[in-house]
Design a protein that fits this description.
The radius of gyration is 26 Å and the shape is rod-shaped. Strands 1-2-3-4 form a 4-stranded antiparallel beta sheet. The protein has 110 residues and is of the alpha+beta class. Strand 1 and strand 2 (75-80) form a beta hairpin. The longest helix has 52 residues, at 2-53. It has 1 helix and 4 strands. It has one domain (2-107).
């Protein structure tokens, strides 16, 4: 009887250790995914800022970093190209040449 009780405790401990190993592996994967995604988001934001700063010189923008579309009078839609896609609406003041971000969003691919 005591042997059966000890064996059941050992099996319970073995299943607990297996469960903890799986949970630890999932937590490591989740942490790495968050770090990678944050780095990609920051890189996309830097690309977007670069495109916004140079919006008055559309011809000099690198075509692989962003897409610029006119959506109205002095309004421009700037989108980054890459794994993380950010879009912003920019108002370009012709007199001063300054760009003002009106809104932004992260675009998800379907």
């Amino acid at each position: 009887m005591i042997i059966a009780w000890v064996l059941s405790l050992l099996l319970l401990m073995a299943s607990l250790v297996g469960y903890l190993q799986r949970m630890t592996a999932l937590e490591i994967i989740a942490t790495q995914t968050i770090k990678t995604t944050q780095a990609e988001f920051i890189a996309a934001e830097k690309k977007l800022l670069e495109c916004e700063r140079n919006i008055s010189h559309v011809a000099t923008l690198a075509s692989d970093s962003c897409v610029v579309q006119s959506i109205g009078k002095q309004l421009w839609k700037v989108s980054t190209v890459g794994l993380v896609t950010l879009e912003s609406v920019i108002h370009l003041d012709d007199a001063s040449g300054s760009a003002t971000r009106l809104s932004w969003r992260q675009a998800f691919k379907e």
